[in-house]
Design a protein that fits this description.
With about 350 residues, this protein is an alpha/beta fold. The protein is built from 14 helices and 16 strands. The protein has two domains: about 5-25 and about 165-215, no CATH class; about 35-160 and about 215-350, Rossmann fold, CATH 3.40.50.12710.
Length: about 350
């Protein structure tokens, strides 16, 4: 039994069931025993591998996108170039290396910001940036602390780790899904007393008894904060995550440990917890702030940004083993049965800022 699981069982036994949102928040961010505050989750030795860790090409192409967005916005100076949830710092390092080759003046004029809530990950990022080139980023723990002015912001696999509330359709109506203790004293799901405003449920879709609806107010709040900043001061945002394009009913809460799915109650604090992102909700928030959203699959985005061409250039003077590795990376990042379709890319900007990687139908 993990230390956090024991604490959770004691908490629930003393105060009663907690919401799924509270359970996720404790499992991921508890200062003493939380997943992101106590361990190194990324890479082969961790529990999962993100796109920047799969291939340098991912960060290079996202860097080209960020530089192009800055140009499309009129090259405002000063400006902030930020990443939220930068992990080990791999994505930002690859982006800055690429942009520096395109325009050495970018780093000289940008206020580079990393927004990280985990002290442990912040230290890892500081160590890597100490030898990663001439860029000297500043660290922040929340978006509200960023400097004023135009903001160009990137986030990869950020929204999926933000806690959500779950609601279950019962014979007595919709009730919030809670984490409780069963007769044996083990963690289990139960239906609480709180309900949900029916206007928030997907329209035109019938929910059977037992159906689950996920609401993510924390995601919407962050998206609203970023959208308001961009709408007010200029800039653009790019958000990459796995999820669905239309709202619906599903239980997408899942745990990942050692690159395999785990029971969500098996190892609290020692396994990653995520849910699928409702991109339609994020699009609605951006539109309400006056921004123009663009949305497509990760595969389409990377191919439009030149993934095949970049792989060809890297492999042109390399041996067959390197070319085979590059083919595998392309397939994993953009293949329809791998990350290419499951992962979506959402870009937002003021209406008059044209962004690469999307066609007019997106």
């Amino acid at each position: 039994m993990t230390a956090l699981k024991e604490r959770l069982k004691q908490l629930i036994a003393t105060t009663g069931p907690i919401s799924v949102s509270e359970y996720m928040a404790m499992c991921l961010f508890d200062p003493t025993d939380g997943y992101y505050t106590t361990r190194e989750p990324f890479g082969v030795s961790g529990d999962f591998i993100t796109s920047p860790e799969i291939s340098q090409m991912f960060g290079e192409l996202v860097g080209v996108w960020a530089y192009s967005a800055w140009i499309a916005a009129g090259k405002p100076v000063p400006f902030t170039f930020a990443e939220i949830g930068p992990g080990r710092g791999t994505l930002m390092i690859d982006m800055l290396r690429t942009i520096d080759r395109l325009d050495p003046g970018f780093i000289a004029t940008a206020r580079i910001a990393l927004i990280e809530a985990s002290p442990r990950l912040t230290e890892i990022q500081r160590e890597r940036f100490a030898t990663a080139g001439r860029a000297k980023p500043s660290w922040y723990t929340q978006v509200s602390d960023l400097p004023d002015g135009p903001l160009f912001v990137i986030a990869n696999e950020l929204f999926d780790a933000m806690p959500v509330r779950q609601f279950v359709n019962t014979e007595q109506g919709w009730r919030e899904r809670m984490v409780a203790l069963d007769e044996a004293g083990e963690l289990c799901f139960s239906a609480g007393l709180a309900s949900i405003d029916l206007a928030l449920l997907p329209t035109g879709k019938e929910a059977e008894i037992g159906a689950i609806f996920e609401a993510a107010p924390a995601r919407s709040a962050l998206m609203a904060e970023l959208s308001t900043r961009i709408a007010t001061n200029g800039g653009a945002g790019l958000f990459i995550d796995y999820g669905h394009l239309e709202p619906g009913f599903a239980d997408t809460l899942q745990a990942m440990k050692a690159h395999a799915y785990d029971d969500v109650f098996a190892h609290p604090g020692e396994a990653d917890l995520t849910t699928h992102v409702d991109f339609a909700a994020l699009v609605a928030v951006a539109q309400a702030s006056g921004l123009r959203p663009r949305l497509c699959t990760q595969g389409d985005f990377l191919l439009r940004m030149g993934l095949l061409e970049r792989a060809g250039a890297l492999g042109s003077k390399a041996g067959e083993d390197v070319r085979e590795r590059l083919r595998g990376e392309v397939e994993r990042l953009a293949g329809p049965v791998q990350m290419g379709s499951l992962f979506k890319v959402l870009a937002v900007s003021p209406e008059n800022v044209a962004l690469p990687g999307f066609d007019p139908a997106d």
